[in-house]
TrEMBL record:
<dbReference type="Pfam" id="PF00497">
    <property type="entry name" value="SBP_bac_3"/>
</dbReference>
<feature type="signal peptide">
    <location>
        <begin position="1"/>
        <end position="26"/>
    </location>
</feature>
<feature type="domain" description="Solute-binding protein family 3/N-terminal">
    <location>
        <begin position="41"/>
        <end position="265"/>
    </location>
</feature>
<dbReference type="InterPro" id="IPR006311">
    <property type="entry name" value="TAT_signal"/>
</dbReference>
<dbReference type="InterPro" id="IPR001638">
    <property type="entry name" value="Solute-binding_3/MltF_N"/>
</dbReference>
<protein>
    <submittedName>
        <fullName>Amino acid ABC transporter substrate-binding protein (PAAT family)</fullName>
    </submittedName>
</protein>
<keyword id="KW-0732">Signal</keyword>
């Protein structure tokens, strides 16, 4: 073996040893968009009794509502079908983080949530309202509720709780596992009122007219509602959902889906206060 061949052999051996000693680079996780297209499934968080967003037929277990229509439209654009996972307003963020769902609807983009998930552009803008029990004076301002003797029922982890604690810190705020339990607390007199988004409040009172009254305290508090997704480096899924949200909102399609969702509880556009925006 001549000197040149010897040097080549040594170089090749060294490269082999280096390769053997270097751990293989882990494959980068598949993006949400790629996985949806590959599996043909869009996993969506759904919440019982939250018309006009979600409605579950207890006889057939079939889901309907504005967000179900939206999910089906999104899935059709991706060549996928919708798969649902029952959740709550507070837990759907955790479900996103745990990779149980690919999409959560009607998520308010708070700074705290922005640290752990990402958002599309808004689907629509909401106002916060109060459902008061029978006999409880309808508040004209949030300050009227900010008293130690006032009991406010909220669902833990929701933006409803955030608003109650922000504007009524002196009140006795009662946290419940989900919104249905918070509403039940008002119905049974354990709480004086419940803080909810306007679209949910009007549906609740339509289904339970004897529950109490709707109040829209001042200052009028509004917050956009968006779609929540997992945070990832690949921006295609987020950009697609944002373009989808902007397009359907500007074309009036989002309003049509919302009005169709309100039909489940017998509400029409004429029944909705002006604070309920689409």
């Amino acid at each position: 073996m001549n000197r040149r061949d010897a040097l080549t052999t040594v170089a090749l051996a060294g490269a082999a040893i280096a390769a053997a000693g270097t751990p293989a680079k882990a494959d980068a996780p598949a993006s949400t968009l790629d996985r949806i297209k590959r599996n043909g499934v869009l996993r969506v968080a759904v919440i019982v009794g939250q018309e006009p967003y979600f409605h579950k037929d207890l006889a057939s277990n079939e889901w309907s509502g504005a967000c179900i229509e939206m999910a089906k439209d999104i899935a059709s654009k991706l060549g996928a079908k919708v798969e649902t996972l029952e959740s709550t307003w507070g837990n759907q963020i955790l479900d996103l983080q745990a990779d149980k769902v690919d999409l959560a609807f009607a998520v308010n983009p708070t700074p705290e949530r922005a640290l752990v998930i990402d958002f599309s552009t808004p689907i629509l803008v909401h106002s916060f309202t109060v459902i008061t029990k029978k006999g409880f004076a309808k508040p004209q301002t949030w300050a009227e509720l900010n008293k130690p003797e006032v009991k406010i029922a909220v669902d833990i982890g929701s933006t409803h709780e955030t608003i109650a604690r922000r504007y009524c810190p002196k009140a006795n705020i009662l946290g419940f596992k989900n919104r249905d339990e918070a509403i039940l607390a008002v119905a049974t007199g354990r709480a004086d009122c419940n803080v909810s988004l306007a679209v949910l409040s009007v549906s609740t009172l339509k289904k339970n007219p004897n529950l109490g009254d709707l109040a829209i305290p001042r200052p009028l508090l509004t917050l956009p509602t968006n779609m929540g997704i997992r945070a990832e480096n690949d921006r295609r899924y987020k950009d697609f959902l944002s373009a989808w949200a902007d397009y359907n909102r500007s074309m009036g399609q989002t309003r049509e889906w919302m009005l169709k969702g309100f039909e489940a509880v017998g509400l029409t556009a004429d029944d909705l206060p002006p604070e309920v925006q689409f």
